[in-house]
Design brief:
The complex is a heterodimer of chains A (218) and B (461).
Chain A: H1 2-22, H2 76-82, H3 91-100, H4 109-122, H5 124-127, H6 136-143, H7 157-160, H8 164-173, H9 187-201, H10 207-217
Helix pairs in contact in A: 3-8, 4-9, 8-9
Chain B: H1 2-30, H2 34-44, H3 64-67, H4 71-79, H5 81-85, H6 90-98, H7 111-123, H8 143-186, H9 198-209, H10 211-234, H11 252-258, H12 263-266, H13 281-288, H14 299-309, E1 311-312, E2 317-318, H15 327-337, H16 344-348, H17 372-378, H18 383-387, H19 404-413, H20 425-441, H21 456-459
Antiparallel strand pairs in B: 1-2
Helix pairs in contact in B: 2-7, 13-14
Classes of the chains: A mainly alpha (218), B mainly alpha (461).
């Protein structure tokens, strides 16, 4: 009789414990329960872009294009994007890019507007809205005593005479602490950005840029 | 004699003047204005040099005067480094080779300005003592902790309930046996022996006696149970607030809210692909080449990026042939780099030579097709509409339910972005030609639904 009572209370404790644990997800990083899962069309066997893949030696599903791949297309944008960049990442390569590399795009309003939009996504963080090297990242880092990402203002002596080839070369290989942007932007898009950057250089045309230049140098 | 004397006087005077000239110029060298120098330094030098002895693109400049034998050469070097290299100065050429032949640009500075800069470098920058409170809230209270404390409370309550039940049972047994003793004396019927199922048999008897009430209770109980079951089943596969831990404590608060970086800077493929894209480590390196300490996590988290991509934070360049390097060599570098932060190295060790494995937050089933490109580039939908206030999240969590009903509701009420949208130009012209602008709209909003946004095969194929 007494054994029975003990058994029942033990069973009750076990049942409540089971009830409590069943409400908890075992793996914190798993999103939760789903119906059928792998046995249904919920999770198919195909490789996803960000999945492990033991077919390739580096274990990734996403692979780089084979070097030198050019799509079979006469689309102008694609041709600009995929043509190999002829200037190597050397001092000589940079010099010849500065001298000979020219923007293949026409100065249309659409190109300029797109360039401005892209500038406001990819460049503004450091270079600032008007290219005065006052982006939010630079400002915050300045407070912490780190000036590593401070770029030259577009109106400064170093930048105001930069040719379009020079600007594009910087987006291709990076310059100093600025990284290369060929992963995030296609060549076509970078040429649009270059077009917009050139309006910011302006040779000190905008009044506030000259004022800031005077402040910083003298 | 006098003429001779005067000529010697003249010589003396000339010497004195020359001496003073030399002295004054020499003093003007040393006596540059450090405050002035700081502005010049920030405008021209700071992106490649630290004032301390830490290297960046160029060498750290602390003690630069002692390293150059001749200050005039230093001036020439600053004004035009490439010209100066041609003189064959050994120190300059070695320096150039040491820093990967990166060219120091020519600076059109006056001698006084260079002196100001050198004075600023000599004075140095007061070390930044505390940089913690630059950031807003300190730590983040994790949800997991909150739920464990709630669970503990529940467990304590359950145990208390069990103890109370056992006590009640024991008390009633005691009172029954006491009662039995008194009944024995008076000769009444004793209480029957207790069985474990007393409660249920009694309940059954009681329900039999009150049939209408039993029916009523039964209906309530069964409808409540079926409601609960329905709610539980409808949450299957819906992961709102899914918040997995990530291998790197990447904070969107720091990056988006405080540093003002655009979403698409890192998730740059949102406009070009169905995936918004997890940025590869080289995108991190655009900034983290120069930013090697976080305001909260210091070096511990950023070093994981370095370990994944193969950046040597001590020498400030990429390791050669990183993937085939001896791991022990890499570990040595990072151990040294993280020496001041105990525990950090152990946390990042597993990341060495491995890609960062982020945990997916928004998990769609495979039988639905969703494209970021279509929604961001063509539909011009703001990221926050589906992802919520990412800039407030230390760890990203799922904001929208991502159920089909949620998709459909949005397709029903969202207007198609026809205006200056190349994607819809042909469709728009077609509609205008055949139906006319007014007819096309019929006075209503032209929603995604009207161009087939509710067709099954739009998303399921």
């Amino acid at each position: 009789m007494k054994m029975n009572k003990l058994n029942i209370s033990l069973m009750a404790i076990a049942a409540t414990a089971l009830l409590l644990t069943s409400c908890q997800k075992k793996d914190k990083n798993s999103p939760g329960y789903e119906y059928m899962g792998e046995f249904d069309m919920y999770r198919t066997q195909s490789y996803k872009a960000y999945e492990d893949n033991n077919v390739f030696p580096n274990g990734l599903t996403m692979q780089n294009q084979v070097e030198g791949t050019i799509p079979h297309s006469f689309d102008r944008e694609k041709m600009i994007n995929y043509m190999p960049f002829p200037y190597p990442n050397t001092l000589g390569g940079r010099d010849s890019a500065i001298a000979f590399l020219k923007n293949p795009l026409q100065k249309t309003e659409a190109n300029m507007a797109e360039g401005e939009r892209l500038y406001n996504i990819y460049c503004i963080a450091c270079h600032g809205k008007k290219g005065m090297a006052d982006g939010p990242v630079v400002k915050l880092l300045d407070k912490r005593g780190n000036m590593g990402l401070l770029p030259p203002a577009y109106s400064s002596d170093q930048a105001k005479n930069a040719t379009e080839g020079q600007i594009f070369y910087a987006t291709q290989y990076g310059k100093g602490n600025m990284g290369p942007y060929n992963a995030q932007l296609s060549a076509f898009e970078r040429w649009q950005v270059v077009m917009y950057v050139q309006t910011l250089q302006g040779g000190g045309t905008s009044p506030d840029s000259t004022a800031a230049q005077n402040d910083s140098i003298h | 004699m006098s003429s001779e004397k005067s000529s010697t006087n003249h010589h003396l005077k000339a010497l004195l003047v020359a001496f003073f000239l030399v002295m004054t110029t020499a003093f003007s060298w040393a006596a540059g204005n450090p405050d002035n120098g700081k502005t010049i330094f920030k405008a021209n030098c700071a992106r490649c040099h630290y004032v301390t002895d830490q290297k960046m693109i160029g060498p750290g400049l602390a003690g630069v005067k002692d390293r150059w034998s001749d200050e005039a050469n230093l001036h020439k070097w600053i004004k035009n480094s490439q010209e100066f290299l041609k003189t064959g100065d050994k120190y300059a050429n070695d320096l150039f080779a040491q820093f990967n032949s990166s060219v120091m640009p020519s600076f059109n500075l006056k001698d006084e300005e260079i002196a100001d800069v050198l004075a600023y470098i000599e004075k140095g920058e007061a070390p930044v003592v505390t940089e913690g409170p630059v950031v807003g809230p300190g730590g983040e209270k994790t949800d997991s902790k909150g739920s464990t404390s709630r669970n503990i409370i529940i467990i304590v309550l359950v145990i208390a309930a069990i103890v109370l039940l056992v006590l009640a049972r024991a008390l009633s047994t005691v009172s029954r046996s006491m009662d039995n003793i008194s009944r024995k004396e008076t000769g009444e019927d004793l209480h029957p022996e207790r069985t474990p199922f007393d409660f249920f048999t009694n309940l059954w008897k009681w329900l039999g006696a009150h049939k209408k009430l039993a029916l009523f209770l039964g209906i309530i109980l069964s409808s409540w149970l079926s409601y609960e079951a329905f709610m539980a089943l409808s949450k299957l596969g819906v992961y709102t607030n899914n918040k997995p831990e990530q291998p790197i404590k990447f904070s969107h608060v720091t990056h988006v809210k405080q540093n003002g970086i655009d979403c698409k800077y890192c998730h740059s493929t949102a406009e070009k692909s169905r995936h918004a894209g997890i940025p590869s480590s080289n995108v991190c390196m655009n900034c983290h080449k120069a930013v090697n300490e976080g305001p909260k996590t210091k070096r511990s988290e950023i070093s994981k990026i370095y370990a994944a991509i193969g950046w040597n934070p001590v020498d400030l360049k990429y390791f050669d042939n990183y993937q085939s390097m001896d791991p022990e060599k890499i570990k040595k570098v990072f151990k040294e780099w993280l020496a001041e932060e105990p525990g950090s190295f152990e946390g990042m060790e597993a990341q060495i030579q491995k890609p960062v494995k982020w945990n997916q937050v928004h998990v769609l089933p495979d039988h639905v097709f969703f494209s970021h490109q279509q929604h961001v580039k063509v539909g011009k939908i703001d990221c926050a509409e589906c992802h919520g206030k990412i800039e407030e999240m230390e760890t990203v969590e799922q904001f929208a339910p991502l159920t089909m009903g949620w998709c459909i509701n949005c397709h029903r009420k969202t207007e198609v972005q026809f205006a200056s949208n190349g994607y819809y130009e042909r469709l728009h012209n077609y509609y205008k030609e055949h139906y006319g602008e007014y007819e096309m709209r019929k006075g209503q909003a032209f929603t995604v639904e009207k161009i087939g946004g509710l067709e099954c095969s739009k998303c399921h194929y």
